[in-house]
Amino acid sequence: MTSDISVETGIHLKQARVDRGGQTVLHDLDLSITQHRVAIVGRNGSGKSTLARLIKGILRPSSGTVRLYGRDPAKRDFDSLSVAGFLFQNSDHQILCPNVFEEIAFGLSENGTSSKRIDSTVMALLQHYGIADWRDRAVATLSEGQRRLVCLLAVLIMQPKVILLDEPFNGLDIPTRSRLKRFIADLPHQVLMITHDIDSLNDFDRVLWIEKGRIHADGRPESILPAFAVAMQAAVERESSWEM
Question: Could you report the per-residue pLDDT of 71-112, keeping only the tens digit for each?
Fold first, then answer.
């Protein structure tokens, strides 16, 4: 699925390939992603997380190009890095500071924002989401769902154009998962979400189904998800038969 919208808008990959350990993980992808909410689905090891890390600039393409709103994320300068925020699947891979205020403020501190501005900006964000009393809480005392929310707020405060979410609901209980889904649904940013939770994707604009580092299918949720669910069920049944 392509778009005629300028490369200054959205995410654009041209013949983007990623090789790792002597193997090709992503094969010469051509993609234009301009929709508001896009899901990336596929089996474990299919290349979903590699694609997200490529878009963020955590990985460089072995060949081809990636552009986020006209910028090259592989340059890793502040302007390029600030275009996209990334929420890791495991909050332990993201949290750097001991308390909530410092964690959310970290990015602003790193780019030289004044202490007064940081304090007012962080508190405004905490108040907006009704958690101003979390300011001085130790991150270690938070539940996993609360930790992911703090990580997401640390991403939001940098005002990215794109937010990349890697399995944001994985391992959460049902009430926490529901709250986080509502939070994500209300985000005005462009969202790319990797997930196995296909029930959360019915209101997405587009689904990319990746298999073996290639785009297997690309379209609206109603045209992609039924076939994906059947394929995943068949894979589970094959694995079960091997274990017998």
Answer: 999 887 777 778 999 999 888 889 999 999 999 999 999 988
* Number of domain units in the chain: 1
The Cβ of residue 2 has, within 10 Å, a number of other Cβ atoms equal to: 11
Q: How far is the C-alpha of 51 from the C-alpha of 47, rounded, in Å?
A: 6
Give residue 44's domain range: 36-57+75-239
CA–CA dist 45, 50 (Å, integer):
9
CATH number at residue 140: 3.40.50.300
Q: Compute and round to an integer the Cα radius of gyration of the chain.
A: 19
Decide if 150 contacts 87 (C-beta within 8 A): no
For 184-235, how does the pLDDT look when each residue is reduced to its tens digit (9 = 90+)?
A: 999 999 999 999 889 889 999 999 999 999 999 999 999 999 999 999 888 7
Q: At what angle do helices 115-128 and 144-156 cross, to 10 degrees?
A: 130
Sign of CA dihedral 32, 37, 41, 47: positive
- Distance, in Å, from the CA atom of 166 to the CA atom of 182, rounded to the nearest integer, reads 17
237 Cβ contact partners less than 8 Å away, ≥ 6 residues apart: none
168: its two tokens: 């944001």
